[in-house]
Amino acid sequence: MTGFLLRRLTGAVITLLAISVIIYVVFYVAPGNVAQITCGPRCSPVQVQQVSDQLRLGDPLYVQYWHFLQGIFVGRDYSTGTSVMHCDAPCLGLSYRNDQQVTQLIWTKLPVTASLALGAMVMWLILGVGTGVLSAWRRGRLSERLLTGVTLAGTATPVFVIGLVLMIVVCGTLAWLPYPTYVPFSDDPTQWAWNLLLPWLSLALIESAKYARLTRASMLETLAEDHVRTFRAYGVSERKIIGRHALRGALAPVIALNANDFGSMFGGAVLTESLFNIPGLGQALVTAVKDVDLPVVVGMVLVTGFFVVLANAVADVLYAVADRRVVLS
Known about the structure:
mainly alpha
């Protein structure tokens, strides 16, 4: 197990380094005046030159990337002309639009997006896996066809449509909930949960459709295997076969898909955060793109890539826990 974990950790580090190289090349080696884009259209030539000196854009490309990487691991100093400002590790740069370190901006938004992603993940796993298990168990019956139709409709419906419908029906027509307004967990945990209920449900209804179809297909494949026929021949109940054997065989692809979806949610829940006015990473990314705030965009993309790699590394460990044969591969 130790060797397996070390291999996965080494692979994750190499993947993160490759992602950082690609991101740096895409954003900082692209054609155009990078200093002007980073500083903003209202910057004077003197300010643009100061930004160029801070980013050391006159150095060779490999030296520029080394300073970029050095800032992530040990921090970086930025000269303001009259003084030196230190950016603690992990330093993802400075936002010249709001005169703030990108890392500080991300740290303030990260708990908001994390609460949205975690709650939605719990919901889509319960709804998706539960629907998939029920569809496989009731295969060939009317209920299975209805569930399949519902999952197909969920896959084809955009998240902003579901979110709008939920707000109109739940908050407007039925008046069961107030219109969502984000409340920090530290201020009021109860209001925090109530105000995130509709965003969680909107994301879960979209994502759960994929998990229902994947779980159903995997379980039907497992139910057709020889060892399941043997269990049936020995008189094992269908409920035990579904719960102990078919569901366990269907978990591997669900874990893989969930790792990608959960990781990409840190920066990918743009529509949901914008629709429900949630001040998370997705909403900050939209603002940064609109303002052409290059350091913030780069930092957001790096953070999203980090969480995708981290989630997949955790998924690999879960494979090993669920199936010991994975350790030997």
